Amino acid sequence: MSVRGVLVLLLSLYLIVGSVHSQGSPQDSFIIQYLERRLSQMEERMNQCEQKTVGVTQKTYDLSSEIRGYLSSLNVLRSEVQSEVDSVSARVDRVERELEYLENKIPTQTDIEMEEALLEQQIKAAEVDLLKKKAKIKVEKDCSIGLSQIKSLKIVKKAGDTYGSWFKDPSQGSAKVYLLSGIRNNTLLEYDSLHSFTETNTTTPVKVVQLPFHWMGSGQVVYNGFLYYHKADTPNQILKVDLLNGTVVDSTLVPGAGRLPVYSLNLNTYLDMAVDELGLWVIHADPEYGGNLVITKLDKGSLAVEYTWDTQCRSRDAEGAFLICGTLYVVYNTRYGGRSTIQCLYDIHDTIHSDESPVMFFPKRYTSHSSIHYHPGDKKLYAWDDGYQTIYKVETRRNDQLTKE
């Protein structure tokens, strides 16, 4: 029933009740009361219906608003999907074009065979070139001697810090002595001779050379009037400095070096330069080779790498090393300081072997070394021993005599 019908019905009942009420009989009074109760019930139901109608109308409005929101989000999502589809379509087109290009560029089987043959020739040529370099190093000089023993010890002087290096220029005819104190500095002291270095009241003035860059560690050498050292704050850069004017004339980066100290008992040195009868070397430790030592032959003029050898000598418990005639001798000790020993060697000529050589002891003195440099002319080791400048006299023999012992 509609609301209008309900209102008409109520009006009719009201008129009937009024008419009956005017007649005033008891039966009519009962009927009036009944009709009044029915009217009250109908009014209550109409109120409830009206409330429910309002609630449904509100819910319908809320649902409509929610649907409109979903439709808006759906439109945004549809736009994004369309954009992605367009992007994927563009990528597919590009991939198709690239595949078509690659199909046109794929070489034939004949071309592949020719390229493989060319690559094989290049590899063989590189191997031959390396063999020639090794042969050149071996035959350039008659270098067939090795260390047989360390004979004597001489403490020359105590000067400078606990760590440092000192040495003579191994160039023929040079008697100059050089001192570099500390593990990081840029001041080099030059003496005319060993005598002027040992004399405290010498009349010969000391030449002070200010280097353009600080050094790092204690692995420096002087060769033909040039200082070679590890530049501070760089992992593996070596500088070549002319000591006449203190300027850098060349530099190089040692491949694979500078990632860990070259000796575990000398934690401040990452590159250790060395000179022997064959020329200029650099020693470093390689973490990818188990921390073992690696030796690299450098051209003293251009600093170009001539060849590199991986050795079986460990850096752990090592305090220093030096080369004699292309053979690396590694010096070991304890972290508390003790009697230094040579327990490992590596010969690039493969004529003497570490497992066939006895352990060699330094003269009986319990200490530690921050640097050890071999002088091929004097056949002596110049070592820095807790601030003491020390010289060890060594004895060498031909390799064929060493192998017979």
From TrEMBL:
It is found in: Secreted. Residues 142-398 form the Olfactomedin-like domain. InterPro entries: Olfac-like_dom, Olfactomedin-like_domain. The keyword Coiled coil applies. It comes from the Eukaryota. GO terms for biological process: signal transduction. Residues 78-105 form a coiled coil. The keyword Signal applies. Disulfide bonds join 143-325. Its main location: secreted. Pfam families: OLF. This is Olfactomedin-like domain-containing protein. It comes from Eleginops maclovinus.
